Amino acid sequence: MDESLVSNIDNITGVYAASPQLTSTAYVDGDTVFLYGIDPATYSSVTNGLTIVNGSGLSASGGNQILVSNSLASNLDIGVGSTVTVGPNSTGGSSYTVTGVFNPGTSFGPGARSVYVPLANAQTIAGKDGKVTEIYVKANTADDISTVAAAITSSISGVNAVTSSSLAATGSALSDTLTSFFTIIGLVALMAGAFGVVNTMMMSTSERTREIGTLKALGAQRGTILKTFLSEALLIGLIGGLAGITVGAAISFVLPSLTGSGAAGAVSSFGGPGGLLRGGLQTSITATNLLLGVTLGVIVGTLAGIYPAWRASKMDPVEALRHV
Length: 324
Description:
Layout: H1 5-10, E1 15-28, E2 31-38, H2 40-47, E3 52-55, E4 65-69, H3 70-76, E5 83-87, E6 94-102, E7 114-118, H4 119-126, E8 134-139, H5 145-155, H6 164-207, H7 209-217, H8 222-258, H9 261-269, H10 287-304, H11 306-313, H12 317-321
Parallel strand pairs: 2-7, 4-6
Antiparallel strand pairs: 1-2, 1-5, 1-8, 3-6, 4-7, 5-6
């Protein structure tokens, strides 16, 4: 979009302020980053600004200033006052001074590899002078949001205004979809585990027919046989749960390194934008999750072992002794 559309939006009734932004990709000291060009004078008033953890934000005076995410600053070993080279490719660019380090609220994805520069600088780097990719708009009041969005869409050709509530609804729908997907995957895994326990216990019952017949001939009660096989099923579930959380914990420790600098280097060696992967995925292991894993293993194992145990307890001792 043309940057001149900002003044048109500013003139719409109900608009408190509008702030242009240009989103692109660039290179900082040879590493690929997500580049955001903003107007420092209006960005904070419209979006509430960035969470600066060190240094200060971009000044309205312009110049070669840059804000970097804390993850990127750590990966590049830079900080406030450092000088970096920013350009459209990995072999050239201009020198920029880091004025601040911000917390993007995530350690993975675009946010972890993001930088902010004045809008004019971003347009020069991206080769899109006078252009913007989005315009943030703040209404005078919450009641004006829908009216302002409709006015922007109807009065400016080729522009579609999307409200924050609709974005939140889309995000919520996506979250619900992902939750349902992973829930189904979990249920399938539980069913597969239960089937495995049932199969194991049925085979155990079949192979130990002579033992069951001998025990019953010696006076063992049905309850004793039932408890014996249920105990085995419970033990299988416990061992499976412990093995599962062990493997899960191991993956949780390895995964960050696979999505961090190591993965970035591997992708870059094949000519890909490996720098975008340097924000390592952070995992979390809690006592609640560990306990849940073991508990599910025990419950599934015990429930799956009920039928084989019941079948073993109902076995006719005379028929069983024929196998002795």
